[in-house]
């Protein structure tokens, strides 16, 4: 999947789509079945907290997205075999659903 | 009655429901932190057993059917072994692996993205229709296609039509041909009929189903029978028997998960702005367990712990038993109904609903439990006690929120 610019992949920030990717185990970018390892893109803070907000992706799709105009220059790529999907709670300081990789792969 | 606000339905305060959420989070965390080699050994052992069962079943049929004296016992034994293999593979292994329950092991094969199961539905479509549509929108009317699978009327809120008179027959057909019913599930025939389905996506899905279905048919009804030469009919009959047994068993188990009387339905107002704690509560109220020993639970993919599976669909299934003890205690503490009963009773209730709802509502009474009475006497509430979300007002608030968006 080639993403011409980030606006095409804009749904990667939509809560509905993020939840669907998490549960259906599809790539947030190209909507096809995920592969092992699963890739997450996150800022340094997200990497440190081990809590990512963009949906899981193919490694190739994540790399592509990182090079796309409009991408966050801070994004780092983390690969994992599995992840926990965490729904936000009431009064959660982080109101968005998030992903916690649980088995990092180099 | 479908529930439009789980918290209000249960008479729980904000503080209580948040506390319940935290206690369930703690159960989850404990399992996450303690999963390890013992759990990995469990799933690896089951996969090995399942493979031995398949090999033993196929070999028994190939070798045993040629001699007249061993033909019938070989056919029966072979069919039984194959049925056990398919049940284990579909229910305790395939279904749970595809939820990502074992992804943490970092095993290239036992991973949600790689497992393809021994049934007609392509894994990718199952992960959409089951993991997402059913688990995210559990028992929400109009959202969860598992409420009757588009064939049966399973909630009194669903409008009756004369077509529903045939429910007992459709039900028997669905049970017999369950793997093919499941195979077509994600196509969402209702949306196709209404012309809402993207034709490109539909074509892609149909191709996948055709390919997977053809391979299943080739394997069980062409290749293995052909290997038996002149006795191909016996092998084919045994394979039909194995598939039929798996179909009936998985149908019964799945129908016991959400169709017994205690499992409640919800309206779409409930899922608007649902918090994690409310999501947990909806899962408890929408699911039903059944009782059984350890072997029974393994052979039903641990779906006898349907409530625990719905609370934590991606925790390893071998842990649901220990989790259930804690969940049950929490339900007692917060006075939340925990629906459980013997398998025959749970299925009996599901079957009764299928038959009752084949006729108009006015001919029968609802078997769903009445809402729990509030723990204290009802009194007028002050404004500060009133929930700040207007979705409690049901259909009226939906209209106004749409108007608000329009303005
Ligand atoms: Zn992709």
TrEMBL record, chain B:
<feature type="compositionally biased region" description="Basic and acidic residues">
    <location>
        <begin position="382"/>
        <end position="391"/>
    </location>
</feature>
<protein>
    <submittedName>
        <fullName>Acyl-CoA desaturase</fullName>
    </submittedName>
</protein>
<feature type="domain" description="Fatty acid desaturase">
    <location>
        <begin position="75"/>
        <end position="339"/>
    </location>
</feature>
<feature type="region of interest" description="Disordered">
    <location>
        <begin position="361"/>
        <end position="407"/>
    </location>
</feature>
<dbReference type="GO" id="GO:0008610">
    <property type="term" value="P:lipid biosynthetic process"/>
</dbReference>
<dbReference type="Pfam" id="PF00487">
    <property type="entry name" value="FA_desaturase"/>
</dbReference>
<dbReference type="InterPro" id="IPR012171">
    <property type="entry name" value="Fatty_acid_desaturase"/>
</dbReference>
<dbReference type="InterPro" id="IPR005804">
    <property type="entry name" value="FA_desaturase_dom"/>
</dbReference>
<dbReference type="GO" id="GO:0016717">
    <property type="term" value="F:oxidoreductase activity, acting on paired donors, with oxidation of a pair of donors resulting in the reduction of molecular oxygen to two molecules of water"/>
</dbReference>
<dbReference type="GO" id="GO:0016020">
    <property type="term" value="C:membrane"/>
</dbReference>
């Amino acid at each position: 999947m080639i993403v011409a610019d980030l606006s095409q992949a804009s749904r990667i920030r939509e809560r509905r789509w993020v939840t669907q990717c998490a549960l259906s185990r599809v790539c947030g970018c190209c909507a096809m079945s995920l592969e092992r390892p699963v890739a997450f893109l996150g800022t340094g803070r997200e990497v440190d907290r081990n809590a990512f907000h963009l949906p899981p992706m193919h490694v190739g799709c994540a790399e592509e997205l990182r090079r796309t105009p409009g991408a966050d220059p801070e994004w780092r790529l983390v690969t994992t075999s599995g992840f926990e999907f965490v729904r936000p709670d009431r009064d959660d300081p982080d109101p968005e659903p998030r992903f916690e990789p649980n088995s990092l792969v180099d | 009655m479908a529930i439009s606000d789980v918290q209000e339905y249960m008479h729980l305060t904000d503080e209580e429901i948040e506390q319940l959420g935290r206690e369930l989070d703690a159960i989850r965390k404990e399992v996450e932190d303690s999963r390890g080699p013992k759990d990995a050994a469990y799933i690896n052992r089951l996969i090995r057993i399942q493979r031995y069962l398949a090999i033993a079943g196929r070999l028994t049929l190939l070798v045993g059917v040629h001699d007249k004296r061993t033909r019938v016992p070989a056919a029966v034994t072979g069919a039984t072994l194959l049925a056990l293999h398919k049940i284990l593979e579909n229910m305790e292994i395939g279904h749970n692996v595809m939820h990502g329950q074992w992804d943490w092991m970092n095993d290239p094969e036992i991973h949600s993205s790689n497992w393809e199961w021994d049934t007609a539905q392509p894994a990718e479509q199952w992960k959409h229709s089951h993991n997402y549509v059913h688990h995210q929108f559990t028992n929400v009317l109009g959202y969860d296609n598992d409420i009757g699978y588009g064939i049966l009327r399973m909630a009194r809120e669903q409008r009756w039509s004369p077509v529903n008179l045939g429910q007992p027959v459709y039900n028997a057909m669905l049970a017999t041909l369950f793997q093919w019913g499941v195979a077509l599930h994600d196509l969402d025939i209702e949306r196709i009929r209404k012309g809402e389905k993207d034709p490109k996506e539909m074509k892609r899905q149909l191709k996948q189903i055709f390919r997977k279905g053809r391979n299943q048919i080739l394997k069980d009804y062409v290749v293995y029978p052909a290997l038996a030469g002149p006795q191909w009919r016996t092998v084919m009959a045994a394979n039909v028997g194995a598939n039929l047994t798996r179909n009936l068993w998985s149908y019964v188990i799945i129908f016991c998960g959400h169709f017994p009387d205690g499992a409640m339905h919800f309206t779409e107002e409930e899922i608007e702005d649902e918090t994690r704690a409310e999501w947990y509560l909806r899962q408890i109220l929408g699911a039903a367990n059944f009782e059984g020993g350890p072997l029974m639970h393994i052979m039903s993919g641990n779906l006898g712990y349907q409530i625990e599976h719905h609370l934590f669909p991606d925790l390893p299934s071998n842990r649901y038993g220990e989790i259930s003890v804690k969940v049950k205690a929490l339900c007692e503490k917060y006075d939340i109904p925990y629906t459980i009963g013997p398998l025959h009773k749970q299925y009996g209730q599901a079957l009764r609903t299928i038959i009752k709802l084949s006729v108009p509502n006015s001919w029968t009474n609802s078997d769903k439990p009445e809402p729990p009475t509030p723990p204290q006497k009802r009194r007028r509430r002050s404004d500060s006690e009133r929930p700040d979300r207007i979705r409690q007002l049901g259909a009226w608030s939906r209209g106004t929120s749409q108007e608000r968006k329009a303005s």
